[in-house]
Design a protein that fits this description.
Layout: H1 19-24, E1 39-45, E2 51-57, H2 59-62, E3 67-72, E4 103-104, E5 110-116, H3 119-126, E6 130-135, E7 151-158, H4 161-167, E8 170-178, E9 190-196, E10 201-206, H5 211-221, E11 229-232, H6 248-260, E12 264-267, H7 270-276, E13 283-291, E14 297-309, E15 331-340, H8 353-371, H9 375-381, E16 386-387, E17 392-393, H10 399-410, E18 422-424, E19 427-439, E20 445-452, E21 457-460, H11 470-482, E22 489-492, H12 509-533, E23 548-550, E24 553-556, E25 559-562, H13 563-569, E26 574-581, H14 586-589, E27 593-605, E28 610-621, H15 628-647, E29 678-683, H16 707-719, E30 725-726
Parallel strand pairs: 1-12, 8-30, 10-11, 14-15, 21-22, 28-29
Antiparallel strand pairs: 1-5, 2-4, 2-6, 3-5, 7-15, 8-13, 9-10, 9-12, 13-14, 16-17, 18-19, 19-27, 20-21, 20-26, 23-24, 24-25, 27-28
Helix pairs in contact: 8-16, 11-12, 15-16
This protein binds dioxothiomolybdenum(VI) ion.
Dioxothiomolybdenum(VI) ion (MOS) binds next to loops.
Domain Aldehyde oxidase/xanthine dehydrogenase a/b hammerhead: 24-137
InterPro entries: Ald_Oxase/Xan_DH_a/b, Ald_Oxase/Xan_DH_a/b_sf, Ald_Oxase/xanthine_DH-like, AldOxase/xan_DH_MoCoBD1, AldOxase/xan_DH_MoCoBD2, AldOxase/xan_DH_Mopterin-bd_sf
EC number: 1.17.1.4
């Protein structure tokens, strides 16, 4: 372990460097991006979920003003499926190519793409396309409608969970379900595709969490070398996993642009966005716990079933966090998937684990009730001081501190555990808590940094800022190492022409990107030190590494010379450094995870059937927060999403034909300001220097895990009703 570095900019509250661009409308989002001579695409969605497209009648649509062409199965170019490999970096969200055959797998699947001179013309014409289908019998919608237990796709086991469950004096065996959820990100999916050099060069603007994945997949699909495909994503109106990997609209748009010889932009309408670009799959989970009378867990069994589509096999691994959650010798998880006639589901913020943690942390609360134990005490009783899954020490785990600190701020000690015992006027107060956890991962990353003649610094990395603040933390890192103010650091992200950066996913961006940016910055500084100590330099003859770096200047022997002066003396426009970093072998010696605790107060007014979350107190342990403003904002946003998951959100499918009923932002319920309680979020500051030199693990997802369980546990405390199906609605309480 190295000594703890002292940081001046990293770890400080820093306003977003891109804030002004966003507020003034200069930020270049894909949906807003325009090109000369651009056409507009509008997909035509299938209106059945399962069957065959027999014919399309296009005459009326073709005759509409501004229509240029309509692409469909009958005349669509031959393309190659992407190999869809995470390892090769060409993963896609839906493997089937658009218009590949005449089969229909879900409502909303594209059966044609209308291309017209304006968006409105394309849209109007799309409504004039007539389709005839042959409907197949046996539409499957949702897990509840099926007794099918699906296909096993993963399992884990240690010890003898069945045996231990069989002989445990206290047992619990319950089933939990969660409705499918929509990401409902602000900016819809959008693609703007342009071909150059006689169709040998494809440039795509896409609102994506992974420009390199999309580039590689497009290269395979259009049979081009990857360097002939560029993907650009400068600003992204958020993505919660639904923009990790490419969806069919992008392929259709690129194919249309090549077919027509003009740039084409497709912005998905909200309805299609919700039907065709992923959702958190519905899940059904069975938890079996066995415990001793003193609360020691003897057995944990966690069986999960999640939906997938009939075109792809998406696995939402609900049991992911379970093996390492508690000190327990006997643990098993089983994961199964069941194909249904919905669009393909995909990762959604804390995928799998957020569903799994709801079930497990609800079950732990139920066990506490059965044991007549405080649920906080039960968690501490079974505290995993090392990682029981891998038998390794944690690099840094302060869940105990999270639980204690949040409990104290919440006032847990004065909670009366008796059901419905805490009242305030007409309202009954319920208090519940749950733990939060999310894995800590790191990806390879490269970056380039240029110290420029005007004293500013330019930093470039191909990773994206999906709205989480990557631009700002990159600028902070450069500022930290150069002493140049954050405002003088220009950051460019989100282009495949830049050094390769990771997906903005899995809460891995910070931990992956900053080490590469730091390495590139040091490389640039070393180049400048070489220049300055060379012939005719300001520090001619000194050893390069002996020069210090201070506030945008090199210093030695009591003299300081600004970067700009050094570059000017040598008539250089700048010096550039490169950096490339990857995880080391730290995972062989330690386990890395992030932790947290949520304490929730609900108020239930039985007279008017009103249930509200009144207070959330959270403590989160993610190592060092690089920018505490943005980090807190991530956790707050995740808690809002957790309140939605607990009380409001759910995709409703028509049981007759698997049509998504609430495919719009008004009928799909999410929390609004009036639903928001006071949020008290604390970020513990235990830098994890075994993970990277800045001690940061990642913060995008952990805040969501555990929120819904804490709400359900609080609802039980208020009402005595144990609700195991999300969302919890007032109808289930009266
Ligand atoms: Mo996240 S589900 O990796 O965007």
């Amino acid at each position: 372990m190295t000594a703890i570095p002292e940081h001046h900019v990293v770890g400080r509250r820093t306003p977003r460097v891109d804030g002004e661009d966003k507020l003034t409308g200069r930020a270049d989002y894909t949906v807003d991006h325009r090109l000369e001579d651009m056409l507009y695409g509008y997909p035509v969605p299938a209106s059945i979920a399962h069957g065959t497209l027999e014919s399309l009648t296009l005459d009326a649509a073709r005759a509409m003003p501004g229509v240029v062409d309509i692409l469909h199965h009958g005349h669509f170019p031959d393309l190659h499926r992407s190999p869809n490999s995470l390892r090769q970096g060409d993963a896609v969200s839906e493997v089937r190519l658009p218009f590949e055959d005449d089969r229909i797998h879900y409502h909303g699947q594209y059966i044609a793409l209308v291309v017209a001179e304006t968006f409105e013309q394309a849209r109007a014409a799309a409504f004039r396309v007539k389709a005839r289908y042959h409907r197949d019998a046996g539409v499957v919608t949702g897990l509840a409608a099926s007794d099918d237990t699906g296909e096993e796709v993963g399992h884990y086991m240690r010890g003898e969970p069945e045996l231990a469950f069989g002989i445990a004096p206290v047992i619990l065996d319950e089933t939990y379900t969660i409705a499918a959820e929509s990401h409902l990100q602000l900016e819809p999916h959008a693609t703007l595709a342009e071909w150059r050099d006689a169709d040998q060069h494809l440039i795509v603007h896409e609102s994506t969490q992974g420009v390199f994945y999309q580039r590689n997949a497009l290269a395979r699909i259009f049979d081009l070398p990857p360097e002939r495909v560029e993907v650009i994503s400068h600003y992204i109106g958020s993505g919660f996993g639904n923009k990790l990997f490419m969806w069919p609209h992008a392929v259709a748009t690129a194919a249309a642009a090549r077919w027509l010889g003009r740039p084409v932009k497709t912005v998905l309408p909200r309805q299609q966005d919700m039907m065709t670009t992923g959702h958190r799959p519905a899940s059904r989970q069975r938890i079996r716990l066995g415990a001793e009378f003193d609360g020691s867990l003897a057995s944990i069994q966690h069986d999960s079933l999640t939906e997938t589509s009939t075109v792809d096999r998406y696995v939402d691994a609900c049991g992911g966090a379970t093996p390492s959650a508690y000190a327990c010798d006997s643990v098993a998880t089983h994961q199964r998937i069941l194909p249904v006639h919905h669009g393909t589901p995909c990762p959604m913020r804390a995928p799998g684990e957020v569903s799994g943690v709801f079930a497990l942390e609800s079950a732990i609360d139920e066990l506490a009730v059965a044991l007549d134990m405080d649920p906080l005490a039960l968690r501490l009783k079974n505290y995993a001081h090392q990682d029981p899954q891998r038998g390794l020490p944690w690099s840094s785990k302060h869940l105990d501190r999270c639980l204690e600190s949040a409990a104290e701020r919440f006032g847990w000690a004065s909670r009366d555990p008796r059901i419905g015992s805490m009242g305030d006027g007409d309202e009954i107060i319920g208090q519940g808590m749950a733990s939060a956890t999310w894995f800590a991962g790191r990806q390879p990353c490269a970056a380039r940094v240029t110290l420029r003649a005007d004293g500013s610094v330019f930093a470039a990395c191909g990773t994206q800022d999906i709205g989480t603040g990557t631009y700002t933390i990159v600028a902070q890192t450069v500022a930290e190492l150069t002493g140049v103010p954050v405002g003088r650091v220009e950051v460019r992200l989100g282009e495949t022409r830049l050094p390769a950066g990771p997906l903005s996913g899995g809460s891995m961006t910070t931990a992956s990107t900053l080490p590469a940016v730091a390495a590139a910055t040091r490389d640039a500084l070393a180049a400048l030190q070489e220049v300055a100590t060379g012939p005719g330099g300001d520090f001619d003859g000194l050893y390069p590494a002996s020069l210090g770096v201070e506030a945008g200047a090199l210093v030695a022997e009591g003299r300081r010379v600004n970067f700009a002066e050094i570059l000017a003396r040598h008539r250089l426009s700048g010096v550039t450094g490169e950096g490339s970093t990857a995880p080391g072998d730290e995972r062989q010696a330690y386990s890395f995870r992030s932790f947290g605790a949520h304490f929730v107060e609900v108020r239930w007014d039985p007279g008017i059937s009103r249930l509200r979350v009144a207070r959330v107190v959270s403590s989160i342990d993610v190592g060092r927060a690089i920018n505490p403003v943005a980090a807190r904002n991530q956790v707050e946003g995740a808690i809002v999403m957790g309140i939605g998951m607990g009380l409001l959100e759910g995709l409703d499918y028509d049981p007759r034909d698997a049509r998504l009923i609430n495919a719009n932002a008004s009928d799909y319920r999410i929390p609004v300001h009036a639903d928001m309680p006071e949020l008290d979020v604390e970020l513990l500051d235990y830098p994890d220097y075994r993970f990277n030199e800045f001690g940061a693990r990642g913060i995008g997802e952990i805040g969501l895990t555990g929120v819904a369980a804490a709400i359900a546990n609080a609802v039980y405390h208020a009402t005595g009703k144990r609700l195991r199906d999300l969302p919890i609605t007032v109808e289930t309480l009266v």
